[in-house]
Write a structure and sequence with these properties.
Largest interface: A-B, 45 and 32 residues
Strand content of chain A: 15-25%
Distance between the termini of chain A: 30 Å
Number of helices of chain B: 7
Helix content of chain B: 40-55%
Strand content of chain B: 5-15%
Shape of chain A: globular
Low-confidence stretches of chain A: none
Largest sheet of chain B: 3 strands, antiparallel
Order of helices and strands of chain A: HHEHEHHEEEHEEEHHEEHHHHHH
Radius of gyration of chain A: 21 Å
Number of helices of chain A: 14
Low-confidence stretches of chain B: 41-71, 174-184
Number of strands of chain A: 10
Oligomer: heterodimer
Helix content of chain A: 40-55%
Strand order of the largest sheet of chain A: 2-3-4-5-1-8-10-9
Radius of gyration of chain B: 28 Å
Structural class of chain B: mainly alpha
Chain lengths: ~350, ~180
């Protein structure tokens, strides 16, 4: 499995998507629980085993086995598990949980089904660019197929019952990963955060907090799951993301003479370092990718698609590099491997 | 953006929740009003998180001193043992039954997370189908009983086959009635 995952990046990276100049990907999750068993935090080992067996039968009934494979967590090395987190196919919570648990991963890595994470099932789908409706459709297809064989915990007034109170209702969380270097540069990013909060969304840095977010990458996520339908969640997220993208484009267009030179210098230097560096730490790698993505958008970097940037963003993460090297790596070895990856891709 | 709901002068930057008689209510406050509120005597309501003022009071108390702590009765879910305090502190519950067992307090807590109180999204189609199949099963069993009473065994056999097919597709079986013949 590891070889297959390593050999080819997820379908969303190769395919790209709308607004991919400023949106890396859209990711959605549906939380579901079986009606007759307690949620995983209160489940016994036997109950978790029963959940896993029932979900496996449901996956088979749904005809999904031909399009992916199920692995239990004990089958995988911790390095591989970390790589799956970096690919957004599993969560840290799944690793930290106890007892029988696992994940079904589609061959094209467009969706996964975690079993016995904080809920019995968590279906995740990812698509390139800004595609909230497409992600919702993919999730609904898997959900409907599984529901043929599983009775989900559902209440007429409260909707799908989940272990987290902030997911009850639709159980649907939708996130768009945005690249906002211009807004980040002029500190208007805090206004964006404030507006998102008012609109019932959360807005935060992907790899760290909102201040000086590495790689200028931000995650925009819906907060409410009760009182808004799945379609409304997708609609509001798209609308808000489009507003933010418009602000980002205005901020880029408003760059005055001095800043244009600064920007050109930033992109030129990034290209030079990417092509020549022998050591690159993760944070610097993210910063270079941010500058290069901006360079493509402003026409300074030719013949490089956004999907190329996304691929390096994904495969330049620590666990991916460790899996490639095939051993536990110290920081120096990781920096060397990352620099090799950048030189190979951008030379 | 919203003005502080205490002083109505400064921009609110803090979301503050308090529990009174098991009901969670929310206030939008500015930093100054939040500090004042935390330094006030806390009789009459329970903070959802321990306030710095109370933490300071506990830290300042010498060993052996009794720092008054108000005990708040909390609801517990009989099905899984999870309680309301856990739901408030971690935003988590233990099972489907918790949503009923933890009562109104949970509803008021949900108001702080969401934009509404009623689910407006997807309804599981399969649950509807199963409900219909369940209803059909129920009426078929009733029909079988009356057919047997009228000694129409041919029709009864046909009905029993239909019931079995339905039970298999729903993956259910009517529970065996052990010792049900006593008294009959």
């Amino acid at each position: 499995m590891q070889k297959t995952l390593l050999d080819k990046p997820g379908a969303w990276i190769s395919n790209g998507g709308p607004e991919s100049d400023s949106v890396v990907c859209t990711r959605g999750t549906l939380a579901r629980n079986l009606a007759d068993l307690p949620f995983p935090s209160r489940c016994s080992e036997d109950e978790k085993r029963a959940v896993q067996e029932r979900v496996l039968v449901a996956i088979e009934t749904a005809g999904l086995l031909a399009s992916g494979s199920y692995v239990t967590l004990t089958e995988l090395h911790v390095r591989e598990l970390r790589m799956l987190i970096e690919r957004q196919l599993i969560t840290r919570q799944l690793i930290e949980s106890r007892g029988p648990r696992g994940v079904f991963i589609a061959n094209d890595q467009s969706f996964s089904i975690m079993v016995n994470e904080r809920d019995h099932l968590r279906i995740t789908a990812v698509a390139g660019g800004l595609q909230p409706d497409e992600v919702l459709l993919a999730l609904n297809n898997v959900d409907d197929a599984l529901a043929l064989a599983l009775d989900f915990a559902y209440h007429e007034k409260r909707g799908y019952l989940t272990s987290s109170l902030d997911e009850v209702g639709t159980g649907f969380k939708l996130t768009a990963v945005l690249h906002l270097p211009a807004l980040s540069n002029n500190k208007r990013i805090f206004d964006v955060e404030q507006n998102a909060r008012v609109d019932h969304h959360t807005f935060d840095g992907v790899f760290d907090g909102i201040t000086d977010a590495p790689g200028d990458l931000y995650a925009l996520t819906n907060r409410a799951t009760l009182g808004r339908s799945e379609g409304e969640v997708a609609f509001h997220l798209r609308a808000l993301a489009n507003t933010i993208l418009q602000q980002e484009r205005e901020a880029r267009a408003a760059l005055n003479g001095d800043t244009v030179i600064t920007l050109a210098d930033r992109v030129g230097r990034a290209l030079g370092i990417a092509r020549g560096a022998r050591l690159l730490d993760f944070r610097e790698g993210l910063s270079l990718l941010s500058s290069l993505r901006l360079g493509i958008a402003t026409g300074q970097v030719d013949a490089l698609p956004y999907t190329g940037i996304d691929e390096v963003l994904l495969t330049g993460q620590p666990a991916h590099l460790e899996c490639k090297v095939g051993a536990v790596c110290d920081d120096l070895t990781l920096s060397i491997a990352r620099a090799d990856l950048f030189r190979k891709r951008f030379s | 953006m919203m003005l502080c709901q205490k002083c109505h002068k400064t921009l609110a930057t803090i979301r503050y929740a308090e529990v009174e008689s098991g009901i969670v209510s929310e206030l939008q406050l500015c930093a100054d009003c939040m500090t004042k509120l935390q330094d006030e005597a806390t009789s009459g309501f329970e903070l959802t998180r321990v306030s710095p003022a109370r933490t300071r009071a506990r830290a300042a108390a010498a060993p052996g001193d009794v720092v008054s702590e108000r005990k708040v009765p909390t609801r517990v879910c009989r099905a899984c043992g999870a309680d309301l305090t856990e739901a408030i502190q971690h935003g988590r519950v233990g099972c489907s039954a918790c949503y009923e067992a933890l009562g109104e307090a949970l509803d008021s807590l949900l108001r702080t997370f969401h934009v509404g109180q009623r689910h407006r999204g997807k309804v599981p189609h399969v649950t509807d189908e199963r409900r219909l199949m369940g209803a059909e099963l129920h009426s078929l069993r009733a029909l079988l009983r009356s057919t047997l009473k009228s000694e129409n065994y041919e029709e009864a056999a046909r009905l029993r086959d239909r019931i079995r097919t339905l039970e298999e597709s729903m993956n259910v079986r009517e529970p065996e009635r052990v010792g049900s013949n006593t008294g009959n």
